[in-house]
């Protein structure tokens, strides 16, 4: 199939640092190309891909000085997509909702993956208005706040099988926290759990401007209070394997309806078990007692830390291989593209449109 992938412009594809959606767009795009599809990626100009890249901006907007409003740039991207829409058998959007009013002419060939939380009060009326668009959830739990809409599938995220090498031997004996410093991620819980368990906690996390006060007022004092806490800051993809692979466990003490939680399967790919609070997608991603432990309190989390030695890292990696590879994700999406009511799976369609088929018949 000839497939368009339309990515957010905040980060490059893949992102240089933090950026879960753009990372998934990259993994999906590369896996689809590897599986023989012809893929065009609409993204920032500093993206790296084996697909055809349509650069909308010179670089990712988050890293470009002077960018105040990202919407005009996404409108430019949507116009570029509209001009080329007839070329594609399926068009896959990863930009939430901006495009929905603009794609009615080719709605039967479109898929929109919703990557964020859906429990915000302004979203139900919007999606009720555009209820005929094919939507993909990244967990079943993510769907709960939504009105009746046209769900195409739930498709879990996946990583390239060789992206993170599993660490199956001895680890360095610390607990890991990876992600963002924000109230819903609950780094304060991670700090208290590690302190009570008597283990070192290493925190690799970005601090967005909106969360700067939370860091300074709530988390930084805890980091200074406990001598077993080490704040590393934001890390890149190359550093992630060593960081997660060296940990005895990943702490995922969230306090919000997590749509998926990419860091959980990144840890699993390293053979590192996950201790996660029962929120959002966690029960769908973690197999309790196999790839980690699901807990409901800090007391249970402290107890789970004592039990992680009983989980074989080879088994944790096995759960990842069975459920969360990029090849599986791409195959699931390709199957959905084929089911779209307006999908063009006949490669001769575009040749006929261009008049190439009649030329081939004359030559024959």
Automatic annotation (TrEMBL):
Residues 18-119 form the Glycosyltransferase subfamily 4-like N-terminal domain. It comes from the Bacteria. Residues 170-312 form the Glycosyl transferase family domain. Pfam families: Glyco_transf_4, Glycos_transf_1. InterPro entries: Glyco_trans_1 (IPR001296), Glyco_trans_4-like_N (IPR028098). GO terms for molecular function: glycosyltransferase activity. PANTHER family: BLL5217 PROTEIN, GLYCOSYLTRANSFERASE. This is Glycosyl transferase family 1 domain-containing protein.
């Amino acid at each position: 199939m000839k497939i368009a992938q339309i990515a957010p412009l905040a980060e490059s594809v893949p992102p240089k640092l933090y950026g879960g959606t753009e990372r998934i767009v990259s993994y999906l795009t590369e896996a689809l190309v590897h599986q023989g599809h012809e893929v065009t990626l609409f993204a920032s100009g500093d993206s790296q891909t084996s697909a055809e890249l349509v650069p909308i901006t010179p670089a990712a907007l988050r890293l470009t000085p002077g960018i105040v409003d990202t919407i005009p740039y996404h409108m430019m991207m949507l116009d570029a997509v509209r001009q080329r829409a007839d070329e594609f058998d399926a068009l896959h959007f990863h930009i939430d909702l901006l495009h929905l009013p603009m794609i009615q002419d080719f709605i039967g060939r479109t898929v929109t993956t919703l990557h964020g939380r859906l429990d915000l009060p302004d979203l139900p009326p919007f999606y009720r208005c555009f209820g005929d668009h094919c939507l993909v959830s990244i967990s079943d739990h993510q769907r709960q706040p939504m009105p009746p809409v046209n769900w195409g599938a739930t498709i879990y995220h996946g990583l390239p099988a060789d992206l993170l090498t599993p660490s199956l031997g001895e680890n360095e004996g610390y607990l890991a926290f990876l992600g963002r410093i924000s109230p819903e991620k609950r780094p304060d819980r991670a700090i208290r759990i590690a302190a009570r368990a008597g283990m070192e906690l290493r925190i690799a996390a970005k601090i967005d401007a909106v969360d700067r006060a939370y860091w300074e007022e709530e988390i930084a004092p805890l980091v200074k209070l406990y001598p077993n806490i080490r704040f590393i800051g934001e890390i890149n993809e190359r550093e992630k394997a060593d960081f997660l692979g060296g940990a005895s466990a990943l702490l995922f003490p969230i306090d919000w309806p997590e749509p998926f939680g990419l860091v959980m399967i990144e840890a699993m790919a390293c053979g590192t078990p996950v201790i996660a609070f029962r929120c959002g997608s966690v029960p769908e991603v973690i197999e309790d007692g196999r790839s980690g432990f699901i807990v409901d309190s800090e007391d249970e989390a402290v107890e789970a830390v004592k039990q992680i030695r009983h989980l074989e890292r080879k088994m944790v990696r096995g759960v990842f291989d069975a459920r969360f590879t990029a090849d599986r994700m791409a195959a699931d999406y390709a199957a959905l593209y084929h089911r779209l009511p307006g999908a063009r799976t006949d490669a001769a369609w575009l040749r006929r449109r261009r008049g190439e088929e009649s030329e081939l018949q004359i030559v024959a």
